[in-house]
């Protein structure tokens, strides 16, 4: 990775000079002779406009470029307008290249980039059809989460950058409020429950004394580690830095959140309990666009709903068979049977600090164990490590059960599998293996870390992502782990099937909410009845689908496609089929739309046949 970045660092510096000195117009309208240079330019044009993204990637820090670490990403209306104009220009230039002269690799990159740009342009009509403040991934929680978990502090300069970012929270929240008012004017407002959740969250966020706030205590903890990193902070420097951070929280951060809180309280008085995006202007068309983006398919909402119902019936049949084999006599109600198992004390951790520590240790053991055997199914393994961590407590109660954060490019941050530890009474041990395989190995960690480590991919493909591909792979990884023998007993297999059932149910409830006008409680009841998941976990999930329309549909649609492509390759190649080779074809080209993935696999099959 370092070698790759080193090759393009001259281009990056040149872009910086052009942006700052020569002017944007000449840069934008210049068409490089090499399309590979253009791919890199598009990546840097977009990434340079996103300083928080640059801080997360950490591509430039090893070369002494750190100015972006002082800034927050501009989310103003003007910035959105410029992003739209930039996308238009990028597509116009891209389409000037003669595709007949491109290599196979270049053509694949061309097709993926063109898909990205066209999809982004199509989505401009829906630019206000989202909820940037919400209970799950809202700006009000994502920004402090970024400061705590992404902003790197190795020395005093990094700490000063951290404080400078705190000092521009006011500007960031002014931009946020500008966007919220634009949405309200366009008739886009979140449901009542979203506002209820966020108001409570914001009130809690501004409750501590500034000196005790997590944004200050986080800085203090990181300053204490600087000595170990070879950059000791003196007592006087530490005091000055913490005083500056405390002042920023008191004078800038808290007022910004109070301003947001006042706006949300006013919105709360006029919000409705309608949950689906059908309520928004031209909502059905917007939902169909979200399905297209999140599944990279042409399925309609009704078609996805029917696929979901069929998959629910199929998976529940398999679960009944396993339950019966274990002596369970009443298997007619899968939800009830799984709920009973979920509350069986032999499968639960004590709901205390010791239980939480043991849960993290067991997740780590599961990941280490499966990682040791992955050479049988993969020809390339990630270099980046992965670790397990608790979801930050300030956002835990409204988070999903688990999620994955990718490693940084410079190796300073590993891949991290975050999990909730506040719901141990709803975390049966028989479901943990599948969750670890989904989020870490061989799921998201393999897919994302390998993609970032591929030396021959243009940077936009190394850091590109498609929901159906990524989540489809992670769900496929759950089944693969079982096929490879890492699901050890009948109850773990029930956990795997329940996880797959959960994703099938998502197809039903997501389309139910946003197309068929189901109420929030109707969707909760359906998921509880058909999965047996805990009510707290299900409620968080349903509320997630409400603020992320279509996203939950990508998992099962993606898995179905990857499995179908694997079976096609097996059928056509027979004894020539190699599982590691298939996985290399799927993963080593990076994330891509499912239709492009199918073309890549078909090409692999054709070339493998031709080898005789």
Percentage of residues in strands: under 5%
- Tell how many strands the DSSP assignment holds: 3
Structural class computed from helices and strand pairing: mainly alpha
Number of helices: 27
The portion of residues assigned to helices is: 55-70%
Which strands sit side by side, in order, in the main sheet? 1-3-2
Keyword list:
single chain; 612 residues; mainly alpha; 3-stranded mixed β-sheet; 64% helix; globular; disordered N terminus
Structural summary, described in words:
The protein is mostly helical and 612 residues long. Among the domains are: 1-127, no CATH class; 287-557, no CATH class. 64% of the residues lie in helices and 2% in strands. It has helices at residues 2-22, 24-29, 35-48, 51-57, 77-94, 104-122, 139-149, 156-166, 169-185, 192-205, 214-226, 235-268, 283-295, 301-325, 334-342, 353-371, 393-396, 432-439, 444-453, 459-462, 467-483, 490-514, 520-531, 535-547, 554-573, 579-587, 594-610, and strands spanning 386-390, 402-405, 415-419. Strands 1-3-2 form a 3-stranded mixed β-sheet, covered by helices on one side. α22 runs antiparallel to α23 and α25 (554-573) packs parallel to α27 (594-610). It is globular. Mean pLDDT is 93; it is low at 1-5 and 20-27.
């Amino acid at each position: 990775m370092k070698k790759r970045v080193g090759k393009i660092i001259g281009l990056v510096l040149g872009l910086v000079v052009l942006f700052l000195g020569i002017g944007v117009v000449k840069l934008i309208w210049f068409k490089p002779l090499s399309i590979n240079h253009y791919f890199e330019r598009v990546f840097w044009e977009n990434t340079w406009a996103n300083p928080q993204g640059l801080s997360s990637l950490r591509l430039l820090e090893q070369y002494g470029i750190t100015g972006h670490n002082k800034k927050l990403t501009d989310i103003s209306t003007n910035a959105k307008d410029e992003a739209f104009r930039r996308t238009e220009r990028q597509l116009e230039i891209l389409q000037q290249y003669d595709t007949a002269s491109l290599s196979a690799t270049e053509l694949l990159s061309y097709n993926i980039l063109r898909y990205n740009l066209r999809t982004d342009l199509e989505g401009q009509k829906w630019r206000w059809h989202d909820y940037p403040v919400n209970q799950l991934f809202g700006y009000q929680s994502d920004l402090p989460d970024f400061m705590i978990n992404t902003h790197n502090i190795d020395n005093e300069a990094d700490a000063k950058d951290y404080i400078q970012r705190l000092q521009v929270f006011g500007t960031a929240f002014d931009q946020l409020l500008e966007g919220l008012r634009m949405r309200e004017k366009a008739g886009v407002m979140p449901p009542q429950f979203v506002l209820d959740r966020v108001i409570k969250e914001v009130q809690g966020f501004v409750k501590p004394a500034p000196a005790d706030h997590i944004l200050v205590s986080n800085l203090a903890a990181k300053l204490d580690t600087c000595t170990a990193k070879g950059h000791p902070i003196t007592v006087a420097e530490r005091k000055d830095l913490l005083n500056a951070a405390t002042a920023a929280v008191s004078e800038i951060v808290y007022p910004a959140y109070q301003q947001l809180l006042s706006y949300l309280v006013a919105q709360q008085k006029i919000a409705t309990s309608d949950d689906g995006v059908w309520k928004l202007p031209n909502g059905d068309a917007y939902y169909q666009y979200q399905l297209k983006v999140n599944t990279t398919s042409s399925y309609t909402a009704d078609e996805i709903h029917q696929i979901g119902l069929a998959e629910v019936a199929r998976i529940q049949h398999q679960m009944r068979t396993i339950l019966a084999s274990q002596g369970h006599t009443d298997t007619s109600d899968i939800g009830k049977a799984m709920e009973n198992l979920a509350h069986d004390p032999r499968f639960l951790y004590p709901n205390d600090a010791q239980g939480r520590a043991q849960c993290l240790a067991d997740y780590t053991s599961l990941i280490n164990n499966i990682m040791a055997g992955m050479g049988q199914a993969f020809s390339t393994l990630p270099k980046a490590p992965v670790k397990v961590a608790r979801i930050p407590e300030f956002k835990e109660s409204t988070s999903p059960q688990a999620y994955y954060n990718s490693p940084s490019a410079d190796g300073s941050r590993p891949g991290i599998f975050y999990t909730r530890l506040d719901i141990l009474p709803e975390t049966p041990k028989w479901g943990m293996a599948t969750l670890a395989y989904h989020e870490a190995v061989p799921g998201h960690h393999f897919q994302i870390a390998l993609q970032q480590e591929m030396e021959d991919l243009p940077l936009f493909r190394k850091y590109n992502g498609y929901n159906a591909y990524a989540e489809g792979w992670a769900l496929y990884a759950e089944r693969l782990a079982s096929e490879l023998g890492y699901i050890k007993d009948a109850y773990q297999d029930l956990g795997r099937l329940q996880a797959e059932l959960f994703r099938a149910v998502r197809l039903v409830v997501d389309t139910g909410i946003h197309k068929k006008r189901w109420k929030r409680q109707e969707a909760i009841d359906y998921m509880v009845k058909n999965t047996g998941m805990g009510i707290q976990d299900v409620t968080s999930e349903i509320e997630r689908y409400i603020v992320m329309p279509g996203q939950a549909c990508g998992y099962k649609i993606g898995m179905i496609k990857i499995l179908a492509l694997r079976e096609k390759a097996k059928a056509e190649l027979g004894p020539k089929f190699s599982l590691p080779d298939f996985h290399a074809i799927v993963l080593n080209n990076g994330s891509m739309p499912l239709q492009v993935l199918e073309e890549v696999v078909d090409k692999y099959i054709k070339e493998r046949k031709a080898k005789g």
